[in-house]
Amino acid sequence: METKIRPLKMTEKLMGFVGKYWQDLWENHRAGKLVAWCSGVSPHEILKGFGISSVYLEGYGGFCSVAGISTDLCNRAEALGYSPDLCSLIRNFIGATRGTPAPGPEMLPFGGLPKPDLLVCMPYCPGIYKIWERYSRYLGVPLVVIERPRLHDALGKEEINRIMRDTISELQEMITFLEAFTGRRFDYDRLSQSIAYEQEASKLWWDVVGMCRNIPAPMSILDAFSHLFPFHCYRGEPEAVTYYRELKSELDERVANNIGSTIGLEKYRLYWDNLPIFFRIPEHIQKFASYGAVPVAATFPFYFGFPELDPERPLESFAKYSLFTPANVGLQARIDFTTKVVGDYSIDGLVMQRSRTCLVVNMGQDDILKELTKKTGLPSVVIEGDVCDSRFYSDSEVNSKIDTFMEILARQGQRKGQGDDCGL
Amino acid sequence: MLSNGFYVAGIDMGTAFAKVVVLNGYGIISSRVLPAGKNYLETAEKVMQAALNKTGVNMTDIASIVATGNGAANVSFACQQVSDMSCQARWARHVFPSTMAVIDIGSQSTKVIKLDEQGRMKEFITNEKCAAGNGRFLQVIAYVLGVPLDEIGPLSLKSEKVVKFTNSCAVFVESEVISRVAEQQKKEDILAGVHASIAAKVASLVQRIRSEGKHVLAGGGARNIGLVRSIKEKLDCPLLVPDEPQLTAALGAAFIAWDGLQQE
Ligand code: SF4
């Protein structure tokens, strides 16, 4: 029987949620309210304490990629002289904001980005930091950088405590700067409130991702990548809580009724490594589904949210979030985390996406794969892709690798075979 | 159990050549290679017909056909599609049972297929999206040098001073080759250098997949004795080379067709 995708009702609501955020953002900007462009894990919650609207720029790159315009935008950045080797998320952003020829608002998702009054950067990677430095000069707006050292495995408790103290004091300095910049006193209650929403949304989001442990999984993890967008838009806002509560309840219902993400048997459960290839998410879901395979686990969704956030200790718990997110920890910790995810989700095979222009996430991927293979013996396939630049991606090559990989899995025999064909 | 008199066929629709092998329980009846045309289905029909010519076997006599290669989906008369890597593994298991890996140098890509103890495909790796490590690249270089493709291997063996190429991009190497020609470097030295750069890429794939034991070369690239020698020099393991490496995937496909009938 042909396998078909069973769409989530929340996917229909997704664009409504996200569109409303962008509409409000533009209205705030037009009404003269302050707007900050933010990158990495930047503390949007602190900005809320000053009534500043925030935009998560990497998330915007994801939208452009989903909309199928990111390669065009990368080209426009290259026409300015930027190298095609530069991270495609960054080129996408440059193309959208300064590209030559300049893209019209009708071409860009949500009419583009409103001009910022401030840049905030708590970077994952040096590339991001360097580009904001450049934009701060170009736009003539201040840049707030919160240094967030990458943790490595050999750090002792003392050193980690020192890093925590430094990070907290950087957050405090940011508050001091913003008080001077806005001429307003910081609203700590608003910060606590915002952290409380963020904590609630984080718990719900991690629960949602965790539900894919069920066999059959109620949602493909590739779908989860799209459902991250409300997290990017509504950081520390009640809307994110509402969204993930609704998403969770839809998935709860599927789990209770043993309904999977595809119509037909879920024969193989896959782990997806690294960033999504946003411009091919539906195609990948379909391709795997044609073999009765569902990507059900990934570590990337856990880069977002931190259920241990604490409204009683907002700065301290935020510092912890920024440091201990799986994106920021040492290689051994990444290996351990990935091994745990692979174990928890009853995985049959590993799909390792090598994102061509992101060195940061690629680094260590080979070590992770080697360790995973040693510990689990699971078959794997490495596919080459990119977050935003489709010129680094070949459909025929990736499809033929997936075909071959599925032949290896098929020979090993399906081991789950749960699901339904009730046609819902 | 199927009688040995039944016919099966494997058809490998590669990007440069289409190949067919027809066999029955007694062995290979016929095989044929034709350049891939623009229309995969038309080429498939043509190569199939060419293979059957003078054999006394008709299409209707063939109990099962398995298609593989980039254009496999277009072979509407095939009973099944199987990836070329599975076909290579199946071929190697039959022809070189002690081999632990297949190195397939095709026109479009180079692959290393690691086999398990039973000779089944366990893992695979392919070259990155760059022509510099595969057969198409050699076609371009042969054209630039004005040497027929079949002669580049033997000519390169005459080299006494291998030209080193620093670049790994096919387009840049092509312009480097043109510069070396302008500098009056000998064609055999240039070709030996190109082979060495492809062999280095193959060796790095073998190292990355950590395949050990006997390796077997397959695909059209293995017909080039200059390239084979360069690969042998680079690899730290025994390397087997079949007589007709271009036909290996089609032969593997035919074996899979045969297996399928046996199981029915
Ligand atoms: S995709 Fe990679 S390189 Fe680009 S901004 Fe993110 S971490 Fe940095």
Describe it.
The complex is a heterodimer of chains A (424) and B (264). By secondary structure, chain A is α/β, with parallel strands linked by helices. Chain A is built from 17 helices and eleven strands. Chain A has helices at 9-30, 44-48, 57-66, 70-78, 88-98, 126-139, 157-182, 188-210, 221-226, 229-233, 238-256, 281-289, 314-324, 331-344, 359-362, 365-376, 395-412, and strands spanning 4-5, 35-40, 53-56, 118-122, 143-145, 262-266, 268-273, 293-298, 349-355, 380-385, 418-420. Chain A has a four-stranded parallel sheet with strand order 3-2-4-5. The longest helix of chain A has 26 residues, at 157-182. Chain A starts with a strand and ends with a strand. Residues 420-424 of chain A have low confidence and may be disordered. With 264 residues, chain B is of the alpha/beta class. Chain B has two domains: 7-87 and 247-263, ATPase, nucleotide binding domain (Nucleotidyltransferase, domain 5, 2-Layer Sandwich), CATH 3.30.420; 99-241, ATPase, nucleotide binding domain (Nucleotidyltransferase, domain 5). In chain B, 40% of the residues lie in helices and 21% in strands. Chain B has eight helices and ten strands. Chain B is globular. The interface between A and B is medium-sized, with 16 and 16 residues. The structure holds iron/sulfur cluster. Iron/sulfur cluster binds next to helix 5, helix 6 and helix 15 of chain A.
Reading the helices and strands of chain A in chain order gives EHEHEHHHEHEHHHHHEEHEHHEHHEHE
Beta content of chain A comes to: 5-15%
- Overall form of chain A: globular
The greatest interface between two protein chains, and residues involved on each side, is: A-B, 16 and 16 residues
Q: Number of helical runs of chain A? A: 17
Number of helices of chain B: 8
Helix amount of chain A: 40-55%
Radius of gyration of chain A: 21 Å
CATH topology of the largest domain in chain A: Rossmann fold
Q: Any idea what the radius of gyration of chain B is?
A: 19 Å
Largest sheet of chain B: 5 strands, mixed
- Helix residue percentage of chain B: 40-55%
CATH class of the largest domain in chain B: Alpha Beta
